[in-house]
Design brief:
Length: 457
């Protein structure tokens, strides 16, 4: 047992107050020295970031100027300045209206950021809700202008998976058929260069990396209907190329693991069994499905009905351990029996048990790879898988409480997947913890007073 553990609370208080009392009597000043900032064994004179949504500062369903300016690598760079770091250059959006990619492109290619405002739903109930609007191609043009140059240091591109880092076509413009508009803005030679090559050309002394998130979550956010998740062996090979190239000249760095999808309100807010009904309503629906014995409704909570070609009826109810994404048309669920009768729930809005298994397996195997690469390339490791579990339980920072509750929890933005600016600042401090521990550094935490949480009207 440690010495202080043996002290009673009363004795501990007296023990701690003795130096202060001595100084009051003898007119001296207590020795409360704060250790000087130090870079330790790292070198921060030139830093870059590489990854996807999170390091780009994507939030509220869009990329906008303030979110970028207060992104994780930008916040880190401000702290790195205290230990020899320099400016951190990003391709900032022209304003805070910003540009988001619509995951339902048949509606509109782009969306504005979500903002909290009053909205009347299909039942005539007015309440605070996250609201955004469509942006046409013409309206998006100010946000598609290229800012190529040798000075860009943030190579985190929203929705970029590890295959995209090596694909020259990823730098093409949206007008030429590339659905991702973001890398084109910074590509050194659009259509010819690639993201990995541009990042390597910076010859950075310190790398902030968060890789593999999009390989998994591009798939998960689509309900398992988009490009399949690459194998862990393929992810490992790509990571070797990226990290090997970026650290070839001795650069140090930090890399993060991938959180569990259950940590995000995007996958947990709409429950699989949120179809609540009385006995009369249940009986009415059972009459509709009287030839489908696998579908049965009861008084109380019921699973929604999805298409499923693996069962003889071609449809079934969701069950415990399956999930609905926040992109589901909620008004249609409330008023048009979407997912119950007239229109069954589309697979793109649900994660069935086989897809959940695939995602869980990928996160586990990818995180094992990330841990191995952190050791192999002498990188600091941030355990974001565990940290997001802690956020779910609730954390306190500077006297404020944060948790994963949608809108009111203080950590996530209004898209339910990306943190808000305060959440990103908390994550930046976890990166600082890992860097200080790995490199014997003393980088102070960021205390981002200008970082926004969810803004209420």
């Amino acid at each position: 047992m440690k010495y202080f553990d043996k002290l009673s609370n009363r004795n501990l208080i007296v023990y701690c107050l003795l130096p202060i009392a001595y100084c009051l009597i003898n007119s001296c000043t207590p020795d409360l020295k704060v250790p000087e900032p130090s870079e330790g064994n790292a070198d921060f004179h030139k830093t870059i970031a590489i990854g996807g949504d999170y390091l780009a500062g994507y939030q509220d369903g869009a990329l906008y100027e303030k979110g970028q300016r207060l992104s994780i690598p930008a916040l880190l760079a401000e702290q790195f300045k205290l230990v020899g770091g320099s400016a951190f250059n990003q391709a900032l959006m022209p304003d805070n209206n910003g540009l988001g990619v619509n995951t339902k492109p048949w509606e509109s290619p782009f969306l504005s950021p979500f903002k909290l405002g009053y909205k009347t739903d299909c039942q005539g109930i007015t309440a605070l809700n996250p609201n955004n609007h469509f942006i046409s191609l013409a309206g998006a043009s100010p946000y598609l202008v290229g800012i190529a140059g040798n000075g860009i240091q943030n190579f985190a591109i929203p929705f970029a998976n590890t295959a995209d880092y090596f694909n020259p076509a990823f730098g093409n413009s949206f007008a030429s058929g590339n659905p991702n508009p973001y890398y084109n803005r910074i590509a050194s030679n659009p259509g010819m260069c690639n993201l990995y090559g541009d990042a390597k050309a910076q010859d950075a002394s310190f790398i902030t990396a968060w890789l593999g998130m999009e390989d998994i979550y591009n798939y998960a956010s689509s309900g398992g209907t988009s490009t399949p998740i690459p194998s862990s062996s393929l992810f490992s090979a790509r990571l070797d190329t990226i990290l090997g190239g970026l650290t070839a000249n001795g650069a140090k760095g930090v890399i993060a693991t991938i959180p569990d999808f259950r940590s995000f309100p995007y996958y947990t807010l709409v429950a699989w069994n949120a179809a609540v009904m009385n006995q009369t309503q249940a009986d009415s629906l059972n009459d509709v499905y009287n030839l489908t014995p696998s579908i049965h409704f009861i008084n109380g909570s019921n699973g929604f009905v999805i298409f499923d070609n693996t069962v003889s009826a071609g449809a079934r109810q969701l069950h415990n351990g399956e999930y609905i994404t926040l992109s589901v048309p909620i008004d249609s669920m409330k008023c048009n029996k979407y997912g119950l009768m007239i229109s069954l729930m589309n697979d793109r809005y649900a994660l069935d048990s086989s897809e959940v298994y695939e995602i869980d397996n990928a996160i586990s195997s990818y995180n094992n790879v990330i841990r191995q690469k952190a050791a192999a390339y002498n990188l600091a490791l941030v355990d974001m898988y565990q940290y997001f579990k802690t956020v779910q339980s609730g954390i306190k920072w500077n006297g404020a409480d944060f948790n994963a509750t949608f809108v009111t929890g203080g950590f996530f933005s209004l898209d339910g997947y990306h943190p808000n600016q305060k959440g990103y600042a908390l994550i930046a401090n976890e990166f600082i913890n890992a860097i200080n521990s790995k490199y014997n550094a003393n980088i102070p935490y960021t205390n981002c007073v200008e970082c926004d949480g969810v803004l209420f009207p």
